[in-house]
Amino acid sequence: xxxxxxxxxxxxxxxxxxxxxxxxxxxxxxxxxxxxxxxxxxxxxxxxxxxxxxxxxxxxxxxxxxxxxxxxxxxxxxxxxxxxxxxxxxxxxxxxxxxxxxxxxxxxxxxxxxxxxxxxxxxxxxxxxxxxxxxxxxxxxxxxxxxxxxxxxxxxxxxxxxxxxxxxxxxxxxxxxxxxxxxxxxxxxxxxxxxxxxxxxxxxxxxxxxxxxxxxxxxxxxxxxxxxxxxxxxxxxxxxxxxxxxxxxxxxxxxxxxxxxxxxxxxxxxxxxxxxxxxxxxxxxxxxxxxxxxxxxxxxxxxxxxxxxxxxxxxxxxxxxxxxxxxxxxxxxxxxxxxxxxxxxxxxxxxxxxxxxxxxxxxxxxxxxxxxxxxxxxxxxxxxxxxxxxxxxxxxxxxxxxxxxxxxxxxxxxxxxx
Length: 418
What we know:
The protein is an alpha/beta fold. The protein contains 14 helices and 13 strands. Strand 5, helix 6 and strand 6 form a beta-alpha-beta unit.
């Protein structure tokens, strides 16, 4: 029997990891037993998304700080602590903040691995488990939890790397602990973009052979037919958490420069900057700009919205990305995208083919100009953009094709045949 132990952030609780909702439906094509270890659950995570009955969910709640402080004492018995400190010292990267980050990383890992092992021990689940794989959906501390679990199960351990969990510059200390140790220890690291592969290859060339490109995917909906705006308002859509890295305020600033044509802007997603963005809209946007903030919406409902609404162009102006699934979803409906050329975005959006690529530090005048170009575009020219957007999705990001291929990869690793 083949067993999968999946390490996730919160999933299936709360709203984290919405794109796992599609991937998990393919696990049963390979694995007989599937355990979802849901890490870092908060009290507010009351909703639980549905999973097949055969899945076993192991909830790991975020503990009070004193618990992590107590587990930091366990770190002194972990020889990898001293190896990592020595590496930082040799590379002249040692600092108080990085030491603190390292202790948080290790104490959390030991606490959560212990919680998971107690679950298996209590329910006697270890009995009858043979071949298996531990799969971390993120590439921060979660794979280290997997390494600690491997001591008990002897399974292969792999991790996916996305964006924030991959690019160290996105962290305040420009440091993600235990990176080289994980690359040395894990059986494979699975990147969702070629940019991610290149990033790790350049930093850690000794581990190139462990890096595998396996793209995410979204489910195929029927192609959506939408005419160019013509004399109607151009329908602009965006979807992201309202956090600084998404730079939603720059969308508002660009829209404020458009005063000679009607625009309807719809944004899906919420977050810490919602009130600030709403105030900015009230202050900057003229009456020709209609805007609506839909708040958080689950993934299935979002795709139904895309199927029903005549959106003309999708915006993503992030300062950093892995591969933005939000863009893939929009393109699956044939919606052209205007996006910043950061991370793996340029692997999806091809400039003047299925959308427009902006420089990372674009000026808002340029964004406003491109929105106006789509608004005034002939229907024939606009339909070519839509066709190319849909084709780009079908070739590179179709969920059924990508996740079946990914399951084949996990099966080979599980059977130690890779």
